[in-house]
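FIELD: query
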Amino acid sequence: MALVSDSGHLIAFALHIQPQMRIQMTCVPLALEVGPQPHGVVRADIYMIMKEAVDLTIDWIHKFNSGTVFEGGDVEAFKFIKSVDYPRDPETRTLTAAIHPQLQDRDFCLLKRGDPLFFKFSGETVKYEEDETLHPFFINEAAYYEKGIAFHLAKKLMLTIPTVQMALVFLPALARMAVTGGTHGNEMSGVYVVQEMERQRKEKGEGAWPIPVTTVLSNPRAVKECRRYVETDMNRCFNTDTLSSPITDSSPYEVRRAQELNKLMGPKGSKDAIDLICDLHNTTSNMGLTLIHYTSSDWTKITKVPVRVLVLDIPISDAYSLESVSKHGFSIEVGPQPQGVVRADIYMIMKEAVDLTIDWIHKFNSGTVFEGGDVEAFEFIKSVDYPRDPETRTLTAAIHPQLQDRDFCLLKQGDPLFLSFSGETVKYKEKEPLHPFFINEAAYYEKGIAFHLGKKMMLTVPKVQVQKD
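FIELD: result
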């Protein structure tokens, strides 16, 4: 949090600014103090100093996250020692003196014995009587009158800042991977990617890929019928409660199949679970290639395909989709593609993403160091339904033409969302700009979802290398 003080100088107890404004950060919060500036007033020069400090901090963090090495060194700093009150009347506690003119506006000067501190209203000077030389700051700070503080005293010290760089994170090898398609039986690209990989396995044997890959047609009955699901959405059946529920004669097919897949590739949350599941999906929305993860702390970086990252902040026990069975799963969404249809361009994007994932895992397992950095992502915030008749619950509007096919655009207050069947425009009313995705997804009509809304965020990816025995 930035605080504005009447006192001079930029103070940052957790932020050390070296010459040339190189910024070294510790792992604690920081405050920026900039002054002098009276309460209730903004001065352009003070504003510009504060804004530059914030911009430089952001720039430093970006460079640090991108792997830049920052050389260490000694930095002059001040350690708080004690506070000093104004001279006061012993009975009324009213002030009897003000800061001496020779001390006013001299924050961080060196106080020596005999230096003037206060000028009494009766004309006498109160002098510094300590043997130890110290440095005053927050001199005559208006907000500190009520706290009984005329100034603080500090001792100068030298901070030794080490050379810093984002740490190299060692992770276990990804020994087993699964590629799953047909979790939704009418999302055809994943079905054909799995079938093509199974053809390659028959032709080339287990050496078809540089790592062991299991291929699974997740929902074969739904695939055969070219339906999203037979009885219930299987991609909502992989939370811990559903996976552990007893199977009865009335259990839906997809619940039974989910438990079979959990035995094959899990059990979910156990050390025996497969290392990574890449679950393949299509969307009728214009989302391009999107990777969906349940946390922001563990994910695979694919660099050769234009890709968006979507983060779902859900505890792993509540995570409901197939990839959550594995230790490090994610799903690939590629669109737009109609249900029950396969488009060659969408198929090729999905196949390339799978091939690059396998290639990444092979390089990682072989010891390649992958540089870290900042990656733009979107965090799910909420879902928005279509306008509906309050009695019949039928739709009264469709996605506005100006929003259709603009997944991940920035929605601002007043932007069109829906066009009612009577011709009126329904506009975005939120003050916070957010990003819509899964816009007009055909499969979400039954769920009462016109689109989801997300907030843009930055994921910091560390430099990673395989952990060696």
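FIELD: remark
Residues 170-379+458-466 form a domain with the Aminopeptidase fold (CATH 3.40.630.10).
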